[in-house]
Amino acid sequence: MFNRTILAVALTGATAAQAQTDLPFTLDWRFEGPAAPYFAAIDNGNFAALDLNVTVAAGDGSLDAIPKVATGAFPVGMADINSLIKFLDQNPGAPVIGAMMIYDKPPFAIIGRRSLGIDTPKSLEGRVLGAPPPDGAWAQFPIFAAENDLDMSAITVEPVGFPTREPMLAEGNVAAITGFSFTSYLNTARLGVPEDDLVTLLMADYGVELYGNVIIVNTEYAEANPEVISNFLQGVAEGWAAAIADPEAVIPLLMSRNPAADAELELRRLELSIEDNVATDWVMENGFGIIDDARMATSLEQIATTYEFVNAADASLYFTDAYLPEGGFSLAE
């Protein structure tokens, strides 16, 4: 009897393990502070409770995940929705769509140095701006420039790689760089630039009314596996809720994947992303993951000021709430 009981328990456990769906997820960027909520959802058992075995891959910029998900290499990923909009306009019918807004307020920013003359958008004129071509912030720079009446011919744009972006700013080879506010600011400060010499021009504070990064899904996979996608988004929300409730508690989960990281730095990075981009007043009042239709319409109009749509802009092609609960998620644990 004793041995049969053990066998029954073992078989039950094996069945539960087999029931889990493997779901690879590609981030927009590396394993830094804002990635901690996804590891929290793994290590705290949120995904497992939803019958998911989620694995997380690092990304290489906000545009990086779009083709990975569109080709089916990953069923889910995270990317800049504005770049997704342009991708779908140029590749109509591609099987990828936004399904859960993460950055209600985008972290697109210009990080400059006061000692090199940067203090306002206009101060970029006559100076060198370092910009990685695949950078999500650089992709939105034309809108920022138009909203602030910048003379692009007066700005020298230096294409730089992600690894050299902040070092070039720290060394004074460029006066400013494009990047995510919580990434480039802290990375440059870590290289020894005094924080009182750093200026963050958050594009959202200078007329750019766009949304930021979004969970994207392969539509063919999602249509065949709607419950998997809904469960995944629920797990993501639970991971973010845990991070918001206790940011310090989730950083060790990140550090276990990236032991070379600076825990204190990544905690600050996570806290900045929560405060400025995720837990905005609108999200806390209206729900996490959803979008405001009127604001999305305004975003599309703004994109059209610097980008000529090949096809008629249609928000329903770029974002769906079909896999979200009505009213989105609550970020309270």
Overview of the molecule:
The chain is of the alpha/beta class and 333 residues long. It has two domains: 2-103 and 211-317, 3-Layer(aba) Sandwich (D-Maltodextrin-Binding Protein, domain 2), CATH 3.40.190; 108-205, Periplasmic binding protein-like II (D-Maltodextrin-Binding Protein, domain 2), CATH 3.40.190. Helix content is 43%, strand content 16%. The protein is built from 15 helices and ten strands. The chain has helices spanning 2-19, 36-43, 46-49, 65-70, 81-90, 136-139, 141-147, 162-170, 181-190, 219-224, 226-245, 247-255, 263-278, 281-286, 293-303; strands at 21-26, 52-57, 76-80, 96-101, 108-113, 128-131, 156-159, 176-180, 198-202, 213-218. The strands form two sheets. It has a five-stranded mixed beta sheet. Helix 2 packs across helix 11, helix 11 (226-245) crosses helix 12 and helix 12 (247-255) packs across helix 13 (263-278). It is globular, with a radius of gyration of 21 Å. Residues 1-17 have low confidence and may be disordered.
Main features:
D-Maltodextrin-Binding Protein, domain 2; alpha/beta; 43% helix; 333 residues; 5-stranded mixed sheet; 2 domains; 15 helices; disordered N terminus; 10 strands
Give a brief rundown of this model:
With 333 residues, this protein is of the alpha/beta class. Helices cover 43% and strands 16% of the residues.
Average pLDDT over all residues: 93
Assign an overall shape. globular
Per CATH, the class of the largest domain reads Alpha Beta
Structural class: alpha/beta
Instruction: State the strand order across the main sheet.
Output: 2-1-3-10-4
β-strand amount: 15-25%
Please, what is the CATH homologous superfamily of the largest domain? Periplasmic binding protein-like II
- According to DSSP, the number of beta strands is 10
Number of helices: 15
Helix content: 40-55%
Q: Could you say what the CATH architecture of the largest domain is?
A: 3-Layer(aba) Sandwich
Radius of gyration: 21 Å
Distance between the termini: 42 Å
Helix-strand topology string: HEHHEHEHEEEHHEHEHEEHHHHHH
Characterize the biggest β-sheet: 5 strands, mixed
Question: How many separate domains?
Answer: 2
CATH fold annotation of the largest domain = D-Maltodextrin-Binding Protein, domain 2
- Regions with little confidence, pLDDT below 50 for 5+ residues: 1-17
